[in-house]
Amino acid sequence: MQNPNDNAQEVQPDIENATSEDIAVEAEIVAEDSQTDTAGELAEAKDKYLRLFAEFENFRRRTAKEKTDLIKNAGEDIIKAMLPIIDDFERAQKAFDKSSDLATLSEEAQKEIIALKEGVTLIQHKLLRSLEQKGLKVMESSVGKTFDVNEQESITNIPAPSDDMRGKVIDEVERGYYLNDKILRFAKVVVGS
Q1: Which of 7, 20, 59, 110 is spaced 20 to 30 A from 179 at the CA atom?
Q2: What are the backbone angles phi and psi of residue 100, rounded to the nearest 5°?
Q3: Is there a contact between 187 and 172 (Cβ–Cβ < 8 Å)?
């Protein structure tokens, strides 16, 4: 059996007999291998850095957009809860407009009803202006226009009074609203068939 120290001596280069030229060539080979490894590691580290930086920028933009959206739509639930109140004001205005009993009432009662109507109108406009400052916008009336699924909800179909009204909105039961260009409530309409 051989001594393990004998193998170690065979593997090691013969330094005593090597010339300075051999040592320089060996050092050059080791340096080239080292540079190649270092360049590969540098490229890999640079790639990781660029990917991490891009990922961070995407995260930063996404969170900034989410924060902006959250701030813009913070009062959405409250405004949505106030829409039935706005609807009630509109119904009250229609009831005042349909009221033809004023002529039969005394002059004093007529003045009281007119003052009441003006008060309701004032409160309605004030409420709408306040909500508009928070981003609420009323959808345009769609009566007579073609039914649009993206903005309207059909609650019923009725026979169209004429052929040109088929597929068009005949009546608007509830108005639709936007909150910062996002649909808050679809308009509820009656469509002619």
Answers
A1: 59
A2: -115, 10
A3: yes
What is the C-alpha to C-alpha distance for residues 90 and 99, in angstroms, rounded to an integer? 14
Divide the 193 residues of the chain into consecutive groups of 10 and give the mean pLDDT of each group.
50 56 69 75 90 94 90 82 92 80 76 86 93 90 85 88 84 89 90 87
The SS3 assignment for 176 reads: coil
Please indicate, yes or no, whether the overall pTM of this predicted structure exceeds 0.70.
no
For the record, the structure tokens of 99 come out as 């009221």
d(CA 145, CA 159): 16
**How many H-runs (helices) and E-runs (strands) does the chain carry?**
4, 6
List C-alpha distances in Å: 172 to 138, 161, 163: 13, 16, 19
Measured torsion, CA atoms of residues 105, 109, 112, 114, in degrees rounded to the nearest 10: 20
Task: Specify the length of the chain in residues.
Answer: 193
H helix intervals, 134-153: none
